[in-house]
Specification:
Layout (H helix, E strand, L loop, with lengths): L1 H17 L2 E5 L6 E2 L7 E4 L3 E2 L6 E3 L6 E3 L7 H15 L3 E2 L2 H11 L1 H6 L1 H12 L3 E11 L2 E3 L2 E4 L2 E10 L5 E11 L9 H6 L7 H13 L4 E2 L1
Parallel strand pairs: 2-13, 3-7, 3-8, 4-8
Antiparallel strand pairs: 1-12, 5-6, 8-11, 9-10, 11-12
Helix pairs in contact: 2-7, 3-5
């Protein structure tokens, strides 16, 4: 019996090693803001989608290079909704997206797309909220296959920025990328593997986990 149990443990560990998740974030910085600047009322801009010809693209907000890939048509809306809900669950009062969209039309969608920081400043003034959150997605690739076997795994790559709407200064930023890869030698994510019950998950699940990872490091007041 002991020999059988030992053999089973070896098999279980070997299976885990075959499907351990590969993921990476930014530095996951912990930041505090002065009480005079911090506010629980936020403007959230709809996610930007940045597509490039290569595997690396520059962020239009901060200029940082990020891994890139295909982006599903519903990625922007999905990530924006996740961001709003995640902030609200953490006690933030997010300006209704209908109000934000209305003001975007007044500012001009082209300006918002081309000059995100300047757009953030103008929308901040119009909506009377000092802080603006800008998200950018660089990759949102669907899983090809099922939860128990894939031809190509899901992958996500996105970033968040907290901008001072008065000055345009980026107060905090962080990024997240995850792809499920077989035969990975990185066993540091074994906990995530077990939490997902060893299944190949969807891009939406990767994005959900990544969003919570970033928001857990969202700035707090000093």
């Amino acid at each position: 019996m002991k020999k059988l149990m030992k053999t089973w443990r070896v098999i279980t560990l070997s299976a885990a090693l075959l499907f351990v998740m590969g993921c990476s974030g930014g530095s996951h910085p912990y930041t505090t803001l002065p009480a005079s600047l911090f506010s629980t009322r936020l403007v959230v801009l709809p996610f930007y989608a940045v597509r490039g010809e290569g595997s690396i693209v520059a962020c239009p907000v901060c200029g940082k290079n990020n891994p890139a890939g295909p982006i599903l048509p519903d990625a922007r809306g999905t990530l924006t909704d996740m961001l709003v809900v995640g902030l609200q669950r953490r006690g933030y009062k997010v300006v209704p997206m209908s109000n934000v969209q209305e003001e975007i039309l007044k500012v001009g969608e082209k300006k918002v797309k081309t000059y995100p920081i300047e757009a953030a400043k103008e929308l901040s003034a119009r909506l009377k909220a000092r802080l603006v959150v800008i998200g950018v997605v660089f990759e949102y690739r669907a899983r090809e296959g099922s939860a128990y076997g894939v031809e190509k795994p899901a992958a996500v790559s996105f970033s968040l920025h907290l901008v001072d709407g008065k000055t345009g200064r980026i107060l905090w930023k962080d990024s997240y990328r995850e792809i499920q890869e077989p035969l990975s030698e990185d066993v540091s994510n074994i906990g995530r593997f077990l939490k997902r019950k060893g299944k190949w998950v969807t891009a939406q699940r990767l994005a959900y986990d990544g969003m919570n990872t970033l928001l857990d490091n969202f700035p707090e007041p000093e």
